[in-house]
Protein 1
Amino acid sequence: MRKYLIIGVQGSGKGTQAGLLAKAYDLVHINVGDIFRWHVQQHTKLGALVRRTMAAGELIGDEHVEKIVRDRLEQHDWNYGFIIDGFPRNRRQTEFFLESYDIDGVIHLDLPDDEVRRRVLARRLCPNCGMDYNLIYDRPAEEGICEVCGHELVRRADDTEEALSERLRTYNEKTNPILDLLRRKEYVFTVNAAQSVDEVQTSIREKLGLDF
Ligand code: AMP
C-alpha cells in the first residue's frame, strides 16, 4: 500500500504527475479541485456555493474540503494506495489529515512564480470532453479546437491573470508554510518542476524509492 500527497503551486504539473504515478502503480488519484469542478458542472448544492470562490482563485472552506476528502477515502477502493492532489492547502487541512491518516510521502513540486504565470496563462481546456492543452508545449493541431471532440477550447475560469495572482498569493501565504509542518512529521520530497514531464516523473520515482 502506497499513500502519497502531492503539493505544488498551480501549473506545477501536480495533476499530470499524480496521474502518471497512479497509472503506473495502480493508485487511486484523488484530485480535490476536480471534485469541486464536478460539483459546479453538475449544479449541486455545493457547486453553487463553491463556484464564485473557485473563480476568484480563493480557497474553499475547510469543512467542505475535509468532507470531500473523508468521503472519498471512505469508499475504500484504494487497494494499492492513493495519491491526493491539491490537498492539504493550509495548516488546518494538514492537521485534520495527519490526525486521521498516515502517509508514506509528500511530493513537493517546486516552480518559480514567473514560470507558473507563463504556464498557467497558456492552459486551455475543452469544456465538452475535459481534454486539456497547453499552448507552450501541448498545442492542439488546429488552433483553439479540441483534437478529441472538435469543440472550441476555453480557459479555466480561474486561469485569468487576476485569479492567478490571488492563487499565487494564497499559495505562498498558506500552502508554503505547511511544508514545514509536514517536514517535521512526514517525508517531504522536493522535486524541481521546471524539468520536462518525464524528468519530473523520474525524479519523483527515484526520491520515493519506487521501482521502474
Ligand atoms: P486546483 O485545480 O487544485 O488548482 O483547484 C482549483 C480550486 O479549487 C482552487 O483554487 C480552490 O478554489 C479549490 N480547491 C481545491 N483544492 C482545495 C483545498 N484543498 N482547499 C481549498 N480549496 C481547494
Note: The longest strand covers residues 2-8.
Protein 2
Amino acid sequence: MSELFPNIPAVKYQGASGQDPLAFSYYNPDEEILGKPMKEHLKFSLAWWHTLCGEGSDMFGPGTYDKEFGAEKRDFMAHAKAKVDAGFELMQKLSIGYFCFHDTDLVAEGQTLAESNKRLDEITDYIRQRMDATGIKCLWGTCNAFSHRRFMAGAGTSPDPDIFAYAAAKIKKAIELTVKLGGTGYVFWGGREGYETLLNTNVQLELDNLARLMRMAVEYARSIGFKGDFYIEPKPKEPSKHQYDFDVATACNFLRAYGLLGDIKMNVEANHATLASHTFSHEVRMAAVNGAFGSIDANQGDLLLGWDTDQFPCDVYDATMCMLEIIRAGGFTNGGLNFDAKTRRMSNTPEDMAYGFITGMDTYALALRKAAAIIEDGRLDNFVEQRYAGYKAGIGADIVAGKAGLKELEAYALQNEPKSPASGRQEMLEGMLNRIMYG
Ligand code: XLS
Ligand code: CA
Ligand code: CA
C-alpha cells in the first residue's frame, strides 16, 4: 500500500526538552504512571468524521482541505477505501489505538436503505482486515440520525413514525457494524432530539419515544452479543434550541425516569460542557456520582464563541482537572479519549492534522502526569477529606446513617450553636495546585 502522508513520520517520544513538533514531548505510551502504562490510562481514539471526512466548510465558504486521499469522490467505494487507508496510516504513525465512527462517515449513503447497508457491509469488511493486520480497535460506533433532511425534526423524537422507523433501522445497522468491528461502546448523540418551539411540539410523546428507541437499541444489541457500554452524549444546543440531553444531570434524570440508567452511561464532551455553562470536570464528576461515567470526547471550545468549535485540546490545566476526575472515577473500562476535534480551517494540510493529534495527545499525557502528581502529593484529597470529617462521627454520622430527623436535629441545634464556619481555602488550594503542577 503506498504511503499517503510522506511528510508525516512515525511519531516518537522525544521527552519534555525535545523541540521537534512531529514528536511527542509528554506521551510515552509504555511508561507507567500510577502503576499503569500511559496508553491504558489514555486510550486515544481518532474520530472518522473530522479526520477523514470534514473538509473545513463553514456557512461562509466551502472546504479548504483535500480529503479525497488520491481517490475521486464520485467513485464512492474507492474513496471510502482511501479514507480507511488514510486513517490507518495516521493512526499507526501517531500510535493511536482506537477509532470512532458514524455509519455515514464510512461510505456515502446510497439511494435506499438497502443500498446503504450493502455499501456499509463492504467497507466494514475492508476495515476489519486493516484492524486485524494492525491491532487497531474500534472504541465506539454511532448512527448519524441528524444530517439528512428526513431527520430535520429529529429521529426518535420525530413527529412522523415513518422517520422513527427509518432511524430505528439505521441504528440497528450501526449497532451491527459496531459489533462486527468489535467496538466496546455505542453512542447516542441526539443532534436533532430537541425542539425549537412548544407551539408545534408534544414534549411528552417525544421524550417517551426517545426512551422507547433507546430501550429497543439496548435490547437488540444485547441480543446479538454486544458486551460494551451505551452512552448518551449530552449537548445543550446546536443544532436544536432545547436539546433533551442538555447536560449530564439532565441526561441522567431522563435515563432514571425511564429506567435506563443502569443500561446507558455518559460520553462527556469538553466542548459540550462549556456550551452548557459547566466546566468539563463538573460534567465528568456528575457522570461519576450517578454511576454513569463512560467515555470522553476530548476537545476544547472557545469561550469567546457560542458554538461547538471542536478544537484539539491544548489547555493543560483543564485537561488535568479532567484527568483527576477520570482517575478518581476508576479510569476507563470500555471508554477512552476520543479526539472529536478538527484543525482550524486555515490549518489545511495533512501535517496540520498530525500537529493537532500530537498537541492533543501531549496535552492529555502531560495532564495525566500532573494529575498523578496531585494525587501522589495527597494534600488536595486530604483537604477535602478533612472538610467533611464532621460527617464521620457524632451528629454528622447520625445524619449520614439516617438516624437523625428534623426533631432530633432541632434538639441538637438548641444545644449546639454552630461554630464559625471553616474557610473553604480556595485561593490557597489554587496556589498549591500551581506549585505542584508548575513548580
Ligand atoms: C456533535 C457531536 C457528535 C457526536 C457523535 O456535536 O459531538 O460528533 O460525538 O455523533
Ligand atoms: Ca462528540
Ligand atoms: Ca462536538
Note: The mean pLDDT is 98.
